[in-house]
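[job 4417] fold queue: 2 targets
>>> target A
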Amino acid sequence: MKNKEEERYLVTSALPYANGYIHLGHCAGAYLPADIFVRFLRLNGIPTLWICGSDEHGVAITIAAEKEGVSPNEIIDKYHYANKDAFDKFGMSFDIFSRTSHPLHYETAREFFKDFLEKGFLVEREEEQFFDPVANMFLPDRYVEGVCPNCGYNQARGDQCDNCGAYYNQLDLISPKSLITGQKPIVKKTTHWFFRFDLFQDFMENYIESHSKQWKENVVQQSRSWLRQGMKERAITRDLTWGISIEGIEGINPEIAKGKVMYVWFEAVLGYISATKHLIQELKNKEGNIEFNWEDWWKNPKTHYIAFIGKDNIVFHTLLFPTLLYARNDGFILPENVPANEFLNLEGQKFSKSRNWTIDLKDFLQDFPEDSSVDALRYALGCNLPETKDSDFSWKDFQLRNNSELAAIFGNFVNRTVQFLIKNFESKIPKLPEKYKSLPEDWNELIKKLQDNNDAALKTFRTLNKNEIELAKGLVKSYKNATDNFMNFRFRDGISELMNLARFANKYFNDEEPWKTLKNEPEECSKTLFICSQLLYSFAILFSPIIPFSTKKLFTSLGKQPLTGEPNFGKSSINIWKDSLLFNLNEETKINNPGILFPNFEDKKIQEQIEKLGKSPEEIEKERKKNLITYEEFSKVQLKTAKILEASKVPKSKKLIKLIIDLGNEKRQIVAGIGEHYKPEELIGKTIVVVANLEPAKLMGIESNGMLLAASTEDGSKLTIVTTLTEIEPGSRVK
């Protein structure tokens, strides 16, 4: 990197815990989207680093070690190398996949801790904590279980309820028990160090609001929710034997520091920095001198830092980690975007290891080791990423995506073009007849003008017919949309646009009918296949972020060096993306047969995978039908239109609004919890839909005779009442 002022991208993905195997839900959350993005950036010639690694400390590791009867070191080695191998086979193009057990990470974490101690951002405080007298140890949050003080769930963890998501102090847990001995713990005092997050409330509010228009709604709303509660002091140490010790750090009483390690949430996020240092160290060992260091990425205003995570990690990457970077006051950049994904479900249910309702990546790779199958999985997941809401992976959809799209559209165009060249042009790109010698120049001019939105692009080109003009217009439109979607983290839409490119190409092939012109108009046939051959190279570039194993084969068949966006350790490179639609191959270039890129998946093989899951499809369908109601049951619900006549806030309530409605033959009073989304004055005159035969209920002492219909997001951040498109009399039946 010769120019340190050159724009560059630093991309991180959440560090997976080294206490289990990566499953497809993890892949769709923080890893595949990031891989698509960084491959796209590299193909655009943008200096890019993608940093990841294993998170190897904390109670989750010690619990896994105890279950398997081995040491924590054996656990982290087992899962680190297994997951790294699976990631490699899945095509994850990390510049480095490091680990938090690396000495550089220990050094970095202790350096941050010491700096915060010196600045007064750490407070030493004695607090009460659960202690197991039988095991003779303090109980970290995951070692204690009880009843949630918020929702009553009876298997809540010490600091968070998996049922309702509430966070709380472990001492608030009802009926606690130690997961080590099963005994009721006692309360005992211990000393810990707390980070003063409260000092950075104003800064973090400004930081979140400065990105509120660019970030995903779920990311902004969850961050705002935490800020509304106020950023509080948070413990960053724990009583454990496994972790980064704080013993020997200057300024801490040696006696009190014994047995204290850094809380994993604090030091794990610093793993992004230590992993970058690790990468620089490896590059120096391998290449000798390199032209940049880790600060050129983490302390450079020209760096765009993008953090890919799942929704369960949002506040750690939008509030806590940025606060640590800002508090360090040493030039660290903060995340420019945190494109968190929602959760991927499996066949309509949440992933669950205990119920065997999961697909571990390593198991998929064992059953589907072929490169084409790996790309099919990348494509199927990419088409269904949980970008704005939870999505679902099903084996049938995986089969359909492969057979009906990758094989029938993309693979079909590649195969029919190559086979036609093999059979009729001696496996070579046709030589253009004299009348079409200017075709490459005309095509390239047309493409560039279309990309520049130049109306003059539609002028008549002597060498291009109507089908070719329409082909160029369609290709450029989808190319521009795909590029825009990828830059804005809308990968599902971007992938859809790329598949449209293959659709346009197939349509062109069909419309030109080269099997007919081969005999009747051989010059036209040569031109058609010349254009189709060029598109093979175009598609090799453009599809590389999604299906890199298959495009590598395509590059090779064209006699070209595979350029699939592989890691190049932050170096600048040629932008081949921007010119991908131009003609880049010479006449009479030899074309080798890449074979069938995407064989069809047979029903039998897919059914075998379905039957491996915890429940059979029949049992799933049976459970689904339990929740179905009959038409007769539904007909008992009377839905009617009503006009809002009056609306007023319910005193002492933020949510409730009292409405007087006209049901045609009567007026009624109903109470609705829509006050956080609507003002009373903007409701008057609206025609809404209500449940008219609901039993009366009292809300804050006010009687409600009915219920209005409204739709809301799962987190309640958005809500809209159901209204009619056109005016209709109050009291009209909705059915």
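>>> target B
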Amino acid sequence: MPPTLSPTGHVDTFTRDHLPPPEQWPELVLDPPAPRYPDRINCAEELLDGTIATHGADRPCLVGEHESLTYGALRDRADRVARVLVEDTGLVPGQRVLLRGPNSPWTAACWLGILRAGGVVVTVLPVLRTDELAAVMRSARVTHALCDARFLDDLAAAAAVMASTPHVIAYGGAGSEDLTARAAARPAGFAPVRVAADDACMIAYTSGTTGTPKGCVHFHRDVLAVADTYSAHVLRPTPDDVFTGSPPFGFTFGLGGLLIFPLRAGASSVLLERPHPGALLGAVAEHGVSVLFTAPTAYRAMLGRLDGHDLSRLRRCVSAGEHLPAATWHAWHEATGLRMLDGIGATEMLHIFVSSTDEHTRPGSTGRPVPGFEAVVLDDDGRPVPDGRPGHLAVRGPVGCRYLDDDRQRDYVRDGWNLTGDTYVRDADGYLWYRARSDDMIVTAGYNVAPAEVEEALLTSPDVEETAVVGVPDPDRGQVVRAYVVLRDGLTPDEDRAERLREYVRSRISPYKTPRSIEFRPVLPRTATGKLQRFRLR
């Protein structure tokens, strides 16, 4: 059973009132090295004031495309944002504030300012459109919104159809009503609102790889816990580290890797609004980046552009968001000498819970549980399977899934374990090997085929830029294996090339796993965060 919640520090208790019933909560692992926190905290105060007390206010903190901020300047801006929310709009602790904008110092200051004011931040991707924004606003009962002025139109249209119109403020624009002007006119300083450690500080929405996004509620203690487990024990950052990467703040992979983790360590972060592979390499060289967060597809794209870029400061290359093929790991290592850290996380769990480390890396394996977390592989009845046999990945740790008013909580949490929806195999040494999303496993003529294994084989071909493998219905075999392939530039997609690829796969893995059909595509369907949408291909 989950622990009893502390008395709330929120005035507006909507989020706590719509948590799952206690019997559907995951079991939390709070034994060392999982950290413990005071009963009353504000995670933004810990990330700013706590870090400043240790490392000083004058340290570099955020580098944007148009400005850079020290820790002191970021705290000052966040305090002024909090003042505007409380003094101008009447925000009370617990109200939900939607945040929409690209990764930038202003977006970061808004995120921290909302939390310092006691609000619950609902960070969304800038690419969401009116109907998608309206769905999130209705789900979270959003009362306020801060939005980059360049992305205001869709948000304003979504706000207009709400039963109760949220208070919307733009930032980064012109005029006296813009947040930049209003914040500048406010006095310095703001006392962060300390609430219960288990009060909500954010509602993060899943990226929709399997359909309708779900709102995941995370507490103030959760934000600190992922920094004090994964970041502290796997990344091991120092104050001299410089972070950058491609995932947006609306994707918890990016929120942790580009804001929470560097702030917790007293390090700095380079925030890119358009983080394409060329921009990432440029930032690494220009700013002496040492910690890089992005997805496997971006690492593959960067491989052909490394010439002329100084990567000498780079020491950490983190890959997550989708499975990291062994072929990509080896290609990156051969080209750079750097060993990528693979990891799997989930919006439901806030960040990465299984990862490779400096000491424990096997290309193709996701790694082992992050210190503070436990992971097992279970059968359909919830019983552990022997090593070497595929099953459902189940995890627990100091954080866990709490969907906002969503019946799917019963599917994600069973017997206290968080079921990630992934099929894995654990080997005798405790390493976990990805096989497929559980609903992606292909059963053809009685054989189980893991899409990841077929994709690994295809990606070793010099002809293949990207690929996705799915099962499609077949009257004789139940399902057959189909591969969608993006060819490298200049290659012709035709049946001869498809047959050559099939022969190539047959030479590397069992013939029954070979795709019966190969369909060439110019691009593969992905979410705005870069995750592959296999359900669209199916």
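[job 4417] complete. Note on B: The chain has two domains: 14-426, 441-537.
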